[in-house]
């Protein structure tokens, strides 16, 4: 018994004819008939009842054909898996994340590298708007970003898979007066120095606050997360950032920092999710990354 024989009997059952099956399989009718006869002899039963009208499966033959079909489907899945594994092993993964989630991303990529030692990985941290531009330009293939909910449908040329809705919150040293309550009124932010990351969403939010309550006392803005962390630990200032970024880092909040809701103040709805290209040959790798990231995030989320 071999794979070709299984393909032969499935095709005959599908067409109901030795002649039609031989044409579609590109083998002679004689060779096809001999293949089936050898299989019938090996199994000790008749698979097809042949006549001038065609070939009809016997009751026993129908059971054999059903098993053959399952076997061929399993073989096809095995071949696709092998092709997928081989492709991933020789691929290059370019991935990016918006600030705050690099620790989880690193854990995910380390686990991925153990599975695929030959996989070449490039990772970077950037603001969401820059990641979207890089995806569209083909410089990276997969990115974790935040987007305004009403702009998701306008993300032409890319695919966006949402994870969770997000919002901006205050992060402060637990000894700060700003962290004494679960919420802080937006007008009270004027009483604290702020250190802010260069981020479109933070900039938009601060602009809205400024229009409503006046200029905020900004100590500095930066693209260096460590500079912000140092300012918070030393209680020099508070910051405003994405809740998902902070909550994705259990260690970050365990280091004496607290999250505080900003209320009452309406925020433009945001959503956090994966943005990727339409490259079909990379889709399985991307999905694998996304699932591994979810696993790592579930392990540390608070």
Category from helices, strands and their pairing: alpha/beta
Cα Rg: 30 Å
- Indicate the proportion of strand residues: 15-25%
Please tell me the total number of domains. Answer: 3
Number of helices: 11
CATH superfamily of the largest domain: Periplasmic binding protein-like II
Characterize the largest beta sheet: strand count, sense, and whether it forms a barrel: 5 strands, mixed
Distance between the termini: 56 Å
Q: Which CATH class of the largest domain applies here? A: Alpha Beta
Strand order of the largest sheet: 4-3-5-13-6
Which spans have pLDDT < 50 for at least 5 consecutive residues? Answer: none
The succession of helices and strands, N to C, reads HHHEEHEHEHEEEEEHEHEHHEEH
Key phrases:
302 residues; alpha/beta; Arc Repressor Mutant, subunit A; D-Maltodextrin-Binding Protein, domain 2; 3 domains; five-stranded mixed β-sheet; four-stranded mixed β-sheet; elongated
Explain this structure to me?
This protein is an alpha/beta fold and 302 residues long. It folds into 3 domains: 3-87, Arc Repressor Mutant, subunit A (Orthogonal Bundle), CATH 1.10.10.10; 90-165 and 270-300, D-Maltodextrin-Binding Protein, domain 2; 168-262, D-Maltodextrin-Binding Protein, domain 2 (3-Layer(aba) Sandwich), CATH 3.40.190.10. It has helices at 3-15, 18-25, 29-43, 59-89, 102-115, 128-137, 200-213, 225-233, 243-247, 250-254, 280-300, and strands spanning 48-51, 54-57, 92-97, 120-125, 142-148, 159-166, 168-173, 183-184, 194-197, 218-222, 239-242, 257-262, 270-276. The strands form 4 sheets. Strands 4-3-5-13-6 form a 5-stranded mixed sheet, sandwiched between helices. Strands 8-12-7-11 form a 4-stranded mixed sheet. The protein has a two-stranded antiparallel sheet with strand order 1-2. A hairpin with a 2-residue loop joins β1 and β2. The radius of gyration is 30 Å and the shape is elongated. The mean pLDDT is 85.
């Amino acid at each position: 018994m071999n794979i070709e024989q299984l393909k032969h009997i499935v095709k005959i059952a599908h067409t109901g004819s030795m002649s039609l099956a031989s044409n579609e399989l590109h083998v002679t009718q004689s060779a096809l008939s001999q293949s089936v006869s050898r299989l019938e002899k090996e199994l000790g039963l008749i698979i097809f009842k042949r006549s001038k009208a065609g070939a009809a499966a016997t009751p026993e033959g129908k059971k054999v054909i059903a098993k053959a079909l399952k076997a061929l489907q399993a073989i096809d899945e095995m071949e696709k898996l092998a092709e997928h594994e081989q492709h991933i092993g020789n691929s290059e993964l370019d991935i990016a994340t918006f600030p705050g989630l690099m620790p989880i991303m690193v854990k995910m990529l380390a686990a991925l590298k153990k599975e695929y030692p030959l996989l070449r990985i490039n990772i970077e941290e950037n603001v969401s708007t820059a990641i979207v531009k890089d995806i569209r330009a083909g410089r990276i293939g997969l990115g974790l970003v935040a987007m305004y909910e009403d702009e998701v449908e306008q993300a032409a040329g890319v695919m966006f898979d949402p994870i969770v809705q997000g919002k901006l919150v205050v992060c402060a040293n637990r000894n700060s007066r700003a962290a004494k309550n679960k919420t802080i009124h937006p007008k009270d932010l004027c009483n604290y120095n702020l250190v802010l990351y260069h981020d479109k969403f933070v900039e938009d939010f601060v602009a809205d606050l400024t229009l409503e309550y006046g200029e905020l006392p900004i100590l500095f803005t930066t693209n260096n997360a460590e500079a912000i962390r140092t300012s918070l630990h030393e209680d020099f200032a508070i910051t405003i950032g994405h809740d998902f970024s902070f909550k994705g880092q259990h260690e970050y909040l365990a280091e004496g920092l607290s999250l505080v809701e900003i209320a009452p103040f309406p925020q433009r709805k945001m959503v956090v999710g994966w943005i990727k290209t339409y490259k079909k040959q990379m889709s399985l790798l991307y999905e694998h990354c996304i699932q591994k990231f979810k696993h790592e995030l579930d392990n540390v989320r608070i």
